[in-house]
Amino acid sequence: MPAGSFSIQSDLKSEDLMATILDFGSYPDFIDVVDKVETRLDGPPVWEVYFEIKVIRKLTYTLRLEKKNNNEVSWSLIDGFFITNSGCWKLTPNAQGTEVFYQVSMQMDTFLPSM
Fold first, then answer.
1. How would you list the strands of the sheet with 3-10, edge to edge?
2. Residue 93: which pLDDT band, with cuts at 50, 70 and 90?
3. What SS3 class is residue 42?
4. Nearest of 28, 27, 16, 23 to residue 43 by alpha carbon
5. What does the pLDDT read at residue 1?
6. Radius of gyration over alpha carbons of the chain, in Å?
7. Does 113 have pLDDT greater than 60?
8. pLDDT bucket at 55, cuts 50 / 70 / 90
């Protein structure tokens, strides 16, 4: 199953980064492939969020997201295009701002040709 992760240092406060991560409705404003987002269960600590994205064609899926603590959010697939879609954001405050860790593991239900 394809998986990926990255870690970066941000000069932003972890609280500001977490607020952006949890502002699902604003995703279409800054993530080009996201066309529509509907929050179906509005947390905290648990959200169910429906996504429509455009990657060669329209794909839809619903995730269950859970805020584990002030610095961690994880998600898992409820239904939709993917066979699996899970991952997390982990934010670690430090003197320079925040260490940001992102991890995702997903498997698509069908083949998509490369762009």
1. 3-10, 97-108, 82-94, 72-80, 57-69, 46-55, 34-41
2. very high
3. coil
4. 23
5. 59
6. 15
7. no
8. confident
Residue type, 50: Y
Max Cα-Cα span within the chain: 44
Structure pTM? 0.87
Q: Which of 88, 62, 79, 70 is nearest to 3 (CA)?
A: 88
CA distance 27 to 9: 21
Handedness of CA 87, 22, 54, 12 (dihedral sign): negative
Q: Where are the beta strands (DSSP E) in the chain?
A: 3-10, 34-41, 46-55, 57-69, 72-80, 82-94, 97-108
Residue 114 is predicted with a pLDDT of 53
